[in-house]
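Students often ask why we bother encoding 3D structure as a string. The short answer is that it lets us treat folding as translation between two languages. Here is a chain of 551 residues written in the first language.
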Amino acid sequence: MLYEILSVWGIFLSSIGWGAWLKYFLHLKNNSLAITSLLGFALLFVLSFLLSLVSPLDGKIEIVCIALSSIPYFLKQFHLYKLLTSNHVFKSCWFWLFTAFILLVGSYYPFNSDHFGYYIPTINWLNQYGTVCGLANINWALGQLSSFHFIQACFDSTLDIYIRLNVCISVIFLIYIFERKAFLLLLFIPFYFLYVQSATPDIIVFFLCLLITNELYKNSEKTNFQTLLILSTFAFIVKPVAFWIPLWVFIVGLSKHGRKILHYNYYLFPILLVVLYLIKNFIVSSTLLFPVTFTKIPTYWLTDSKILEISKQEAAYYTFDHYFSAEKAYNFSIYEKIYYWFSLRELQTVVNIFISVVTIVFGFFSIYKKKFIFLSLWSLILLKFIITFLFSGQYRFFLDGIYPMLFILISQIRFARLPTLILITSLYFLALLCISYPSILKKTLPQFKLSNYIHGFSKKALIRPENYVIKKYSKEKLGTLNFNVTQSYGYTFDIPAPAFTLYMLKTYCDLSIFPQLKDSSNIKKGIYMKKLTDVEKEKLLLILKKLEIKK
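And here it is in the second language, the structure alphabet:
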């Protein structure tokens, strides 16, 4: 926790520096520290992605990036010193109390399987090699490489060695809440106490969607259209399921300002973000919107069609909480999908029903209010839900739309400031108690299976964040690819890339394919999928047999 205080402060100052550069180049006017910081992350993605094309995002690159972000602090025209010292947020005891909650929870052991399964392995790849052509051929999960991971890879060797960037993101969102005095937004932070220790890109997207909703709904005169368009586009390139948010910003901006917002200058940086995002996807998987198959482009590194099929089946598999086989779930009709989505009698189904109720209630609310801002929001989120459900009905893909609607509905009730803060503080204590002592969570929510993986509070976390270190792996070679394989656990988070689990090796063996280097002396030239010869398959079977014995 003590380490995180220094880490968060360092990352925050660096992001403000990048935000100052972007505001200077685009002539943006905004006095919000939080928004300046988030703009800085958007610019840092551009720089880190371009650097990753020619270099690993290692410690040397990080030092250069940090140095560049510090320059505005020494130039008077940026006014950063005034912006930091005049901010009223840091004088609030309530702010520091909620910050303490976030720092403490953020120091616990990560528990999210995605954190170990592909968030950290993705960052490892960026650290070791940068952006690699055909990376999705190593593991199709790596094809989901988020723009957020580039930002994480720009801090994890210097300011963020425990990879807790989401702790900083949460504190930045907290700063925004106190800047705007939008205290109802505090209600949404405890939902992510379980994930703030993870490298998930979800948190920044959810917070951006709430921030933009608050700006459009309550502070439309404080933040200009261009700034909101940049932030909403950034949310989209971090997690494409948030495609509705830049559309909503544009539609509301058009209704309020008319043709004034059609000037091309407003769209140059957002277009740059989208173009770089598409280039990233093309390089990594030869698919513009991985794993959506109709966006694939024929190249030598195009992800194998069998892999794309497995990816789609797994999306259906997780939709129904492992109740059905991947193949069966994937072949459900629309009626079956909807029926089972509402009838599994699990905690997940309760969440699905809640999502549906909020959407319906907000629809009636929008029609009753007859306000364009509400009707447009509801229409776009409804469209997003339909499109998303066709690919995967996992409830986490719907939350970026649910939270803004829920926030607007709750905002219709008038709350006094002090009782609200006291009530919210009580909720934070309750959430902290459940996560610190997971036995409470197991008793109160026995259907919440993930509680079995929560480690809880430890005294060591008061000094530095907790982390798992295993590093048991074997070195192997097949064809042109030298790789590492985990020996006794199903993740590759703490071993050097290229890395495989036994499950991945078995899958490739069953499919009779295996990734190979285009040039065995230079991994940057690309990875492609090769059909195994009989000799190669026999060698892969021997590797598997040897690893099974070690296991």
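Translate back mentally: Strands lie at 473-478, 481-486, 499-500, 513-517, 527-531. Keep this in mind for the problem set.
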